[in-house]
Amino acid sequence: MPTAIAVTSTDLVLPPTDPQTPNAAVLAAPETRSLDASIADMQQLLARYGSVVVVCPTSAPAAVQRRLHAVRALLESDRIALVRTDLPPLGAAVLVRQLRQLAACDFSPGVLASAARLLAHYIYAGAVLGSVSRLDRVPVSLSSHLKGWLPGAHFAVLAGPTPQIVRLGGAGDQRLAGPEFATQLLVARGQLQTDWPTTALVPAWQIQGPVQETALPEASPGWWGTGKVVEFAAYLPDLPVLYQLVSSVRREACHWCGMELIGDRCGFCAAPLATPAGPAAVAGGTPQAQAQAQAQAQAQAQAQAQAQIQAQTRGAPQALGAARGAAPALDAAPGHRAGPALDAVPARGVARALGAPPAHAARPLPAPGPATDPRSVP
Question: Which of 15, 123, 133, 256 gives the lowest tally of CB atoms within 10 Å of its CB?
Fold first, then answer.
């Protein structure tokens, strides 16, 4: 029984990649559903799947966020994870589909929820815009604002993982910094008439396979500040690569709710990873030396994960580790305390926005073998 993936809008539901990809549960908007009905809907999901991971973009209306917190607080459940993402609408929909793919594997609910922050760093989400005058979710320089007044000016904007804006068609046309691993490209067309994503990004980013197209999400014009937009997202499409990326990160147990996690923050209660106490914690010397060692370890872990993806996506598919097969979603252990609502967590110093990739060393890759779908292994 896979963990349920729920979303706050139909914009976040893309067609499945294969028949084994689970569907996502769409939670009704607060203005169309009473609080009692929303609680009943969540109770049905918990009864059927055991745990629920809800993906809610940070750009969602405040009423949607309040409803989610109210439902979880009234149910007093530690089996509901509220995952926030800063990705634009199309990129967020790609993230949701990747979580749906992984939900059919043997990952526990805690690992699945905390994997969202890791996966978001490997989604290159952006758009081609006819104007950046109302763009407020990506830093826009004064010169870009001024160039936006020129007739026929178009801009290529990358929202993540590293924000970037370049003007198209000018002298010395710059390129957007793309992924260094094989990806596929998904395009959603708005009112802007341009083929730049397919003509420029496909060769520059070494996109594999045909370009996929989908309808423009309803939230995209508001997110980008204009309806003259063509949104795009480059992503890792293969489930074995996603499985290897997540499974290669060291797992920990949350000191608050007991859920498994990867990275530095629990996906269910948002509690940060506990720092070990005792001689081992102070062996690094001064606080400055410890901070420097932690930064070096984080950079090394990111480099290892990047190297793994490049090795797995550049040649013929290789074995990505033996999977244990699909397993039932893990319920909360009886002895665990219920995790706090996210509103109470910031007292522990928790940040809401997507942070840096996990600072944990990746586990060694298994020996090569024939490529396999993790969900099909008994």
Answer: 15
